[in-house]
Each structure stands twice: as structure tokens, then as C-alpha cells.
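Contributing: when you submit paired examples, paste them exactly as shown. First protein:
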Amino acid sequence: MNDPMKEFFGEGSNPFPLTDIQQFVDLYTTKHSAIISTKNSFDFLQEDTHAHQGYEFLLPMNNMPPILLDNRKLGIDSNRIIPFNSWQEHGPAKQQKGSQLMSFQVRKDYLSTIAYNMFGISEVSFAGEFRVIGNELKDLLRAFLSEGRNQQPGSDFIMESISTHIIVLLLRQLKSNLPTLVTESNYCGDYHIRNAIDFMVDNYSTPFSIEDIARIAALSPYHFIRIFKSQTGVTPHKYLLHIKIEKAKQFLRSKDLTITEIADRCGFNNVNHFSTTFKKHVGVTPSKYRKDFLY
């Protein structure tokens, strides 16, 4: 294995057979980064760990086995991202078949250079936990993959640019030893609040915390709540509840789903909670709303 690939994939037992890796994954690289995306489902055949000099950001795309991270076992949360620091031991905690994942790998020296230019700190240590990511970051990862697959003149330059953009967002949004990027006094919020709203619209049925969405807006939770309310007139909680109720109305206007299924699709804990909340905001129960609309 050449040196750049060794920095990305590291030492120890790797879940992919590195001698013939492109049979199993799509692999696209720049001078400083790489993206790995499983072509089909992949089988983790054993519990084991490995480590590498570069940073890795793992995005499970479906159910996967728990992860071992520095001898801690972490349950998988699909469509959330978890960072692995330089030389941090990690790997599958047990066997499992049919897993799918995407992994963004970055050379340590490149990430350190960007972090130093952003924060004046070159040694970055990410918290070992799954975090929600926004649509902007998801779109950039897809764009990197698309450019790698299609390979047009200038693709290397575009992929390098996208890679840098991804790293900046990861440094902003993931919990680490870096300082908070912005404060209320120097914050220009329209763009970031729109990102937060877009995230809520796309993920209304998925549990997430105020800390998760505040990071999408690159703010502390306290400042995020204040700025969000000043721009929308309501708290993030009330705005999210409005999204859920409006989505429930859409589902109720057809017979495709039961009331219980709609409650689950819209992120309510149970059907009783859904019915009580719906009536409080709409004035009628979900079943009455459906009956009035359909009959």
C-alpha cells in the first residue's frame, strides 16, 4: 500500500480487504482527502480495531454493528456522523452482515492547517460521539462522490475545493476542543437560520437536540434560541412542532396511513401524545380532521 493510502487506512485489522478494496467500495481521493462509499452492503466478519494517522468521519447509511472507540462501545445512529481522531483505535464491535457506510478521510497535516487558520489551534481533538449533520454537508459529500465518479477535466480541482469546504463545516459543526466559532454580537444570521430551518423540515421525524441544531447554525444553544426567535417570532421547539403538525395534516388528507403510523412518521412519542397535541393546535382530533376532509 502506498504512503497516502496507509495514512488513510492505517494499521491494524481493517474491515475492508485492502489488497482488492475497489471490489467492495467506491474510493475517490485528492492530495489531502478521500471518500469511501460501499458499493453494496458489506459484511463485518469480526470484532477488531485499527488506527490511522489521518482523521476519519464515518457516516453509517443503515444499521451497522456497534463501534469500538478507545475501548468504549457506541451504538450506531444511522445518518449521523462520528469522527475518529488521528491514531484513535476504532472498529466494529461485533459481526454483522449487510452494512452500508460512507467515510470521509482527511490527512492530519491538512486538517491541522485549516484548523490553525480558522482558530489558531492546530491540534484538533473531536469528541467521540455521533452528531447530526446538516443538508449542506450532506450535499457536499454527494458532490464529491459525483465528481469522483464522473471525472471531467478539472475534477481534481473541484474535488479539492469541495474537500476543503467539507473540512471547514466539520470543524464548525462537530464537538471538539476548538472554540465556538461565532457569538451573537458578530453573527449575521439569515443564511445559518435558513440552514437550521431546512434541517428541521428534512429531519422533523428524527430525534435531535437543541445542541444538534444549534451546531448546524454554528451557534451556542443559548444564542441560537435567541436569534431564531428574533427572526421567526417563535422558539425552535414551537417552529418544529408547527412543521410536524402541518406534515400530519398532509398525511391525514389521504387514507394511506393509520393515525398511529402518522404519529410515528411525524416524530411523536405515541398516538395519544400526537392526538392531544394536534387537537390543541388545530382544534379537532386527527380522526375528526381526516373525516371532515375526506367525507
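Second protein:
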Amino acid sequence: MYCVDMTVPRLQFERVAPGRVFHAAVVLARPGRGVAAHRHDFWELFVVNGGAGTHLVGGRVFPLIPGDLVLVRPEDEHAIEAAPDDQLHFVNVAIPDRAWRDFIAWAGLQGTLGQWSAVEGPPTVALSTERRGECAEAFRLALRAYAQSPDALALCRFLGAVLPLLGPGPAAIEPVGPPWLSRALDRLREPEHLRAGVPRLLELSGVSATHLARVVRDIHGLTPTELVNERRLVRAAELLTTTPAEVIDIASGCGFENLSHFYRLFKRRYGRPPGAFRLAARAAVAPYQPGGEN
């Protein structure tokens, strides 16, 4: 993925939280300041509650805004910094590698773990307003449990609540681009904007179609249409695994007017059609009968 700088400090869980099942903390970074570059031998989940900043991982810079849920893997070299004119407030939970892998095996999430491990940037999801509340409650309970000397059950409750929010095989969020593009892509997360597609992205960007296409190609290596479709597919995958909505309704709600086109793009992106993708996700927690959705 990238070369690790061996001079960067490497934190060990047994030194961070000796004898604890996990570690939890609230972090408030002042403008222009934050957490210095480091790596560690444990897994870390953090959620941004307020402010804005950047996440430097393996030499690449990613934006951080409220509602971002981020997974940091062992040996990821990363640093976090608040924006020059804003504070950054987040809560993080550190989990020992052995406990993490035991939970993943117990929950049947080995395949999902492989996808989280393979993605180049930090696995990240932008939570909806409803999901932010669920996530905030899970982190609040983890903080309370940590203050009272947490046990394995508290860790299981936390992971059971948060990992479904992270989703199956999340993609890394986009590298930082011009502020106008970052703002437009943030607005594109809203369902009505996502459904409206490229014309709405162009409207939100406030630049010419030619300029938008050039910048999107330079930053993402995609056309605006490909970028919008990628966002739609990620949202569709989230809805398939977190709601009982019909596939046709999910496709339409994400902006795909042609169901065959949606199926084709989805299978290319996730390696299986939407129905099979949903069944595979359910199989992680409950057996299912073959011959259902396809």
C-alpha cells in the first residue's frame, strides 16, 4: 500500500491501556493543531463530532467533517489536524488486534475485514443524520464503560453497534481537492442531490462543466458521471445492508432510472448482484435459505 517510515513512533496497546479490554478517549484539537504522526499495533475507530480538519494517512490527505466514521488499521501511519480556523472534536476507541480478530471471526466478517484491509486509504463512511445518533450513542457508552473498567461484553456491544455503520467493504473517502469541490461533494451526500446526479453536482460546484470535468479527473481519476455513480453505488450498498427496501426502490432512490444499468454497475463494483450482496451481508449474522433474491 505504501512505505512505512520506521522513524515514526509506534504505539503499543499494552502501553496505552495496560490490562484494559479497550481504550476510549475524547479529543479536542485546537485550530491548526492535532495528533502528531504515529502508527500502532491496534485497531482504532473514531467519529468526528464537530469542527473540521484533515487526516494524513500514508502521505495522502483526506478531509474530516462531522459525521465521518473512520477505521484506522494496525501499522497505518497517520496524523490528524484541525483546520486552521476551526477546532476538531472527535472520539476514538482503540481495540487490541487479538480482540478485534476474535470478534471478526465470531461475527463471520472475515470477508469484510479483507475489504477493509485492502482499501488504500482509511476506510471511512459519511454517516446520515439518523446514523450519527446511533454512532454517538455507541461511542458514549464505550466512554462510560472505559471509565468504569470495561469488560469484553462492553467491547462486543460497541463493535456490534458500530461495525454495521461502517458497512461492508467501504471505500476510502476522496483526497482533498479545491474547497468548492469538497463542499459540493459533501452536499451530494444528501439524497435529493444524489438523485439529481451530474447536473446537480455542476450546480453545487458553481464552475463550468469543462472545469469540473478537468478537476474531477485530476483529483479522482474519474469523469463526473463515474464519480456520481460511485457515490450512488456506495449509498445503495449501505441501504441494501441496513434496510429492507426493495432493490428497485433503492436503485431509484439513489438516482438509477434504468434497473439493468444499476445491476450491471453494482455487480462490476461489488462482484455480485444487489440481492446476492444483501444475502451475503445477512449471512454474517443469520443463516439464510438459498434460492431467494438474486
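If you have annotations for the second protein, write them as plain sentences, like these:
Confidence is low (pLDDT under 50) at residues 1-6, 169-175, 284-294.
The longest strand covers residues 42-51.
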